[in-house]
Amino acid sequence: MPSTYDISTVALDDDRYEVRQSLIRNKYAVRDSAGDVVLRGKQKMFKMKEEFPFVTGDGADAFTVKAGGIVDVAGNYAITDAGTGEEVVVLDEDFSLFVENWTVRDPETGAALATIRSKNRLLSALRHLVGFANLVPNRYEIFDADGDHVGDVRGKFSLRDAYTVTIDDASDVPKEAVVAAACVLDALENE
User: How do residues 83-131 score in pLDDT, each as one tens digit?
Assistant: First the structure.
């Protein structure tokens, strides 16, 4: 059943995705449970505002995640559908030294649709204060608008950053936003 927050160019019907970063830069491949690439994204270099364009596994433009401001420490990142040109959701980072917390919001009303929160406060604090702590994979929990647990983003020990994103099928949390957030938060939290 289509949702207001679906992206027209992408159909993420699975409940589990693998996100892998390339060795060289903030470039990501997203695979479904069958191992097929469903999305690719990369951080554009030398931009005043952070920008992450994503394409489908076939190479068609899917969506773009773009910062709302220049050098956005605790800000918002709009996800814009490449097919319609409209903002679908906003990823809002709630900056804190002790917890990495992202809220997926409706772009017009600001209503919270989901929250992605790190599970380990000590690791979150260390990741902000000590560079080598980024080598330890982090884990995040996904909550819906009612505060119910609906999924996880689990980091894996690997030469390059790798995450497993799991979202309950019954959830109305926008999967594209959560998968994009896994890539974006990896890139931004490691800076």
Answer: 999 999 999 887 666 667 889 999 999 999 999 988 766 555 555 555 5
168 CB-side CA count, 13 A: 13
Element (DSSP H or E) covering residue 182: helix 175-189
* Count: domains in the chain: 1
- 2 in any annotated domain: no
- Residue recorded with tokens 């799991």: 166
What is the domain-level CATH number for residue 77?
A: 2.40.160.200
3-state secondary structure 3-70: CCCCCCCCCCCCCEEEEEECCCCCEEEEEECCCCEEEEEECCCCCCCCEEEEEECCCCEEEEEEECCC
Question: Please, what sign has the CA dihedral across residues 56, 174, 187, 90?
Answer: positive
The whole-model pTM stands at: 0.83
Q: Which residues pair with 162 in a beta bridge?
A: 20, 156
Give the three-state DSSP class for 136.
Answer: coil
CB-based contact 127:144 (threshold 8 Å): no
